[in-house]
Write a structure and sequence with these properties.
about 280 residues, alpha/beta, Rossmann fold, three-stranded mixed sheet, about 40% helix, RmlD-like-bd, dTDP-4-dehydrorhamnose reductase activity
């Protein structure tokens, strides 16, 4: 989802880019990673194990991609002098506060997926202290892959009402917005290395996001009903608070991402999302 948006943004900006999917590059293969990085001045890693619940019973496999694979990329970038932009997640944080988490907040993953992604962050910060960038995102949606917004719109065609969790707080982030932000960071040659938070401004719950998506799609928001996380037990625990602070963008001279509502409205004007809302 993010990788396809990033390639589209790069193409629109007239940039030469190499896009490698899983079939073209296995990030757990150190030699293949070294060969792929050669000849590039900036690497953006959108590859990840993203099956949060599946990671609970396959943590070693998740860490091979999200941790060891990132270490291979960082080592290859260190050898060639390339900069590395590593996409990470709010799940490296414990989610036990009620204020926006700054980039300097102490980590403390509550599930295996978060631990695997934290291993990747640590590799970048350790191996590339001057040329490594960790961009944490959360609640990502877009038109090129499975995501919550697309699911809610599809379900509108087959269910009269939907019960949606109202006790998890976060920042719905459009993958196209994040792609543009990654390009801006890649272009900011004097941006300090380290951690940035690539999430939309504002905050809501999954319930609030579903209602707003329905309203923008011309559907009745009252079809969405609030419930609690306890109603949907999952193998992996989820942080209750995924609201991130964005202060570090000032140091890079880059504006933070816009408010989640305006981005959702822009996204839902795109044909791919309109088709979902109009599906029979």
């Amino acid at each position: 989802m993010l990788g396809r948006d990033l390639l589209a943004v790069l193409d629109a900006a007239g940039r030469k880019a190499t896009g490698l999917d899983r079939a073209a590059l296995d990030v757990t293969d150190a030699d293949a990673v070294r060969a792929a990085v050669a000849g590039h001045d900036t690497v953006v890693n959108c590859a990840a194990w993203t099956d949060v619940d599946g990671a609970e019973s396959a943590e070693a496999a998740a860490t091979a991609v999200n941790g060891t694979g990132v270490r291979h990329l960082a080592l290859a970038c260190r050898e060639t002098g390339a900069r590395l932009l590593q996409v990470s997640t709010d799940y490296v944080l414990p989610g036990d506060t009620d204020r926006p988490c700054p980039e300097s907040a102490a980590t403390g993953p509550v599930n295996a997926y978060g631990r695997s992604k934290l291993a990747g962050e640590q590799a970048v910060l350790e191996l590339l202290p001057d040329t490594g960038y960790v961009v944490r995102t959360a609640w990502l949606y877009g038109e090129h892959g499975p995501n919550f917004v697309a699911t809610m719109l599809r379900l509108a065609a087959v269910r009269d009402t939907l019960d949606v969790v109202d006790d998890q707080h976060g920042q719905p982030t459009w993958s196209h917005d994040l792609a543009r932000q990654l390009l801006a960071l890649a272009d900011a040659r004097h941006a300090p290395a380290g951690i940035y938070h690539g999430t939309a401004a504002g905050r809501t719950t999954w319930y609030g996001l579903a209602r707003e998506a329905y309203r923008l799609a011309g559907l009745d928001p009252e079809r969405i009903r609030p419930t609690t996380s306890a109603a949907f037990p999952r193998p992996a625990a989820r942080p209750a608070w995924s609201v991130l602070g964005h202060d570090r963008w000032d140091a890079a001279g880059i504006a933070p991402l816009p408010d989640w509502r305006s981005s959702l409205a822009e996204a839902l004007r795109r044909p791919a999302f309109r088709a979902l809302a109009a599906a029979p």
